[in-house]
Amino acid sequence: MTDQSIFLSASKPRHDSDAATRRALDDLRRVGRLRPAELLFWGAALASFLVLPGSHLLLSQTAILGLFALSLDLIIGYAGIVSLGHGAFFGLGAYTAGIVSVRLTEEPLSGLVLGGLVAALAGALTGPLLTMRATDLSRLMVTLGIATLLHEGANQLTWLTGGADGLSGVTVAPILGLFEFDLIGTTGYGYCLIVSFVLFLAARRVVTSPYGLSLRAIRDNALRARAMGIPVAARLVGIYAFSAFIAGVAGALLTQVTMFTSLDVLGFERSADVLLVLVLGGVGYLYGGLIGAVLFTVLQDRLATLSPQYWQFWIGLILVVIVLIGRDRLAAVPVRLRAGLSGRKAAAGEGEA
Fold first, then answer.
1. pLDDT tens track for 97-139
2. Over the Cα atoms of the chain, what is R_g?
3. Same domain for 341 and 257
4. Residues 288, 282: Cα–Cα separation, whole Å
5. Domain-terminating residue out of 294, 316, 343
6. What pTM, to 2 d.p., does this model score?
7. Do both 73 and 198 map to the same domain?
8. Distance, C-alpha 205 to centroid of its chain
9. How far apart are CA 276 and CA 289, in angstroms?
10. What residue numbers bound the domain in which 269 lies?
């Protein structure tokens, strides 16, 4: 065998590997593009800004909840990190934005970015605790404990957070010096919508990248991923910090839109509600949190109108039905009904013939 033939035989596997890598990257880029259905979703969100001017305050809350749910889905649906205390990062962002407004500057983008960065820093510092305790139960307890500590800390630091009375005196300057926040929430909703869309694109870029594929490998089998050479701990801490950043931005948006924040943003109910949103919308699907937020807000608004005292009971019943029956089976019901109606029409046509 000549030197040239040895070189060709040795380079062929590498050439095949490079081609496979290029194909995989092309597939990822194709998956990362917005599809027509997604453009329709965001078009509907933009249309709601124009068509529903009297509901901008409610729509702002929906956008914030959807962004918060998106942040939680990144760690549960894509990395397999369960959490009962994700509201801690939401609350950190909310309080940071409020404190920045009261003590530093009323410029909204500064408070928004700082709220996200403080939450991301907290996520990076607490993330290693989750990698050391790899069981779901221990992660639940760790995240819940962190949220409880932050809640009590905010309650005790009255000179900084206002304690149980909340942080008052929050004022927000016009965005970019041009768009002033109004009482009906028009500017606030547009602000929330733009921020949510930008962060959604960032999250989409992450989950459709090789980094996102490695997270799914870790979620499915962490031991096998580690054997393949994936730095499991570093990847989990990284996505946890990124998720905390998005949650912090969502909390900052809430403070800036309402111009107030209180201990409620660090409460357990905040973390529980966002879990309910994910159950409604679906886990492991970026639009699940956004769709779930819309469904949760509509259900809460309508059921509270029909049954002010027992609306939580009906939401709980709906969640139990979804979990017991299964989302796939519920989604298949309309398809089966259409198939059944088509079959009856065909049978009736044959009978007439």
1. 999 998 888 899 999 999 999 999 999 998 888 776 667 777 8
2. 24
3. no
4. 5
5. 294
6. 0.83
7. yes
8. 14
9. 10
10. 24-294
